[in-house]
Amino acid sequence: MQKPAPPIWVGGRSDAALARAGRQGDGWISYVVQPERYKQSVTKIEAAAEAAGRSLAGFEKAHLTFITVGKDYESAERVWVDRLSKRYAQDFGPLARKYGIIGTPAQCAEQLQRFIDAGCSHFVLDAICDAADEARQIEIFAAELFPKFRTRRWG
């Protein structure tokens, strides 16, 4: 066995996954949740760790998010819905405002901040766009989105 062992992050949003993360994980990554549920999930993980007599010192909390940055919310939302609806063969229209990180860099930063306020310290950003636009999306993340968070401290 490798020493030190690689960290094991538990993914999921079910109560069983949250309890497992608290009892055994080195970190947790959520998906398809809103900030309010994220915060509730962190509380459940903390309760499971406490019940197991386990410290969460060094425990990492992350969120996988589908993100589309555009010149305005409406155009970014159209791309987000179109690409995810094709990827998953179902209508993602009703899910956009609920689960997407969508809009201008300032709007996306505001939406990400709500997760940070709920306890998130890491993001896995899945750029939702046409393949030809992916490099530009990532450049926008680096130039216009990431600098908004570089001086912040969270945990």
Per-chain topology:
Blueprint: E1 9-11, H1 15-24, E2 27-31, H2 35-51, E3 60-69, H3 73-88, H4 96-99, E4 101-103, H5 105-117, E5 122-127, H6 134-145
Parallel strand pairs: 1-2, 2-3, 3-4, 3-5
Helix pairs in contact: 1-2, 5-6
Question: Main attributes?
Answer:
5-stranded parallel beta sheet, 17% strand, alpha/beta, 2 domains, 155 residues
Characterization of this structure:
- Helix 1 crosses helix 2 (35-51) and helix 5 packs across helix 6.
- By secondary structure, this protein is of the alpha/beta class.
- The chain is elongated, with a radius of gyration of 17 Å.
- It has helices spanning 15-24, 35-51, 73-88, 96-99, 105-117, 134-145; strands at residues 9-11, 27-31, 60-69, 101-103, 122-127.
- 46% of the residues lie in helices and 17% in strands.
- The protein has two domains: 9-60; 65-148, no CATH class.
- Strands 1, 2, 3, 4 and 5 form a five-stranded parallel sheet that branches.
- The longest helix has 17 residues, at 35-51.
